[in-house]
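Q: What would this chain look like folded?
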Amino acid sequence: MRLHLLAVNPTDSVTEGFLPAAARLGCAVTVLTDQPAAHERAYHRYAAAGGTLPELAYLACDVTDFRAVIAAIAATGRPDAVFSNSDHLQAQTALAADFFGLPGKDWRAALRTKNKAQLRRALAEAGQDVVFSAELHPEPPPADPERLARAVRRADPPYPCVVKPREGVASEDVALVADEAELLARCREIAARRPGAALVVEEFLAGPLHTLETLGDGTFLHPVAAFATELSPPPHFVEKRLRLLPGPAPHADQVLAQLRALGVGFGACHTEYVVQGERARIIEVNYRSIGDRCDLALADVLGMPLFAHVLRAHAGQPLPAPLVTDHTGRMRMEYVTADRAGTLTAAPGPSETVHDGVRLDYRPLREIGTHRPLHHTNRDFLGVLCATGTDQRAVDAAVARFLAAHTWEIRP
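A: My prediction, written as structure tokens:
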């Protein structure tokens, strides 16, 4: 079977998850990307370190344009499956799969989940949840500032509120604002960095933050796992740690109903939501697997071929039921995050240890000597520590010991 995989930049999810799964399934993979050299380098490094990869081919392509994707695939002959794990490419992938008559996501659902204004409208129209949301279209400086101020006053958002790019990812340019002056200032800052980008201003949904990880085959939508998530202090929303929740997710039935209203039901999906009393209120829906190495660790702790399940669905094979039988594992992801701009001058190297029933896997995400600004996103991550075991207290204690024993230094 030949799998056509759409990608922008290389990611650990694809390199260490989906590609090895494709190799185990006997797939040959054609990578469609606008960065073929970067993918070749990443996969060569992984293979040189002992990783297993399928037969690979590369097609340079403007993967953001579904017409270019379809033309590039058609030139190689009819594919067996078309897949992407990129936030940016779900609608293009869905359209290409539909063009060739292959299993895939509904492109409308891919669009609804990517476009945060469409997501809010769809949930409200389905009677699922109503969250204040308004679109803004700020112009980059030196645009007339009063024009933006009038648009904000017409929207009349409830303060405090959240402003973010309508099609943004990874909490980039997402901020909590207290009043109109802060909102206008943030909008102008974002417009200067992202000329022409549409923004949404939304009601701030306060409450415990959770995620629901799901898998679907177009017929059944399965809840797989849930995490409790802790964020950096406001006004930014950077993930600091995630803990795997034992058993069913809080209010999973409500989240699944909202996903079905959006048309989500195929492949992997990572949904973030808050719990307010007895209500589950969606923050955003990422129609792909959870990232930042969390999916790799989750597959291990559940003992489940997560990546193979996703690829089988895209090949038209139904998912087994039930998907998960072992809920005894405990897991914590800890993201060591820069708190200032500067050059990383000291940090631990990669390590894997097992002690007192807890496995610790630390991966650096920034090289020593690298100078970076502060982004207030996951681009500030210096490293990720994954701890797994069967006792949450032992897992938390192992994380605390690791963090206390190591140093990360950043100098201006």
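The chain has twelve helices and 20 strands.
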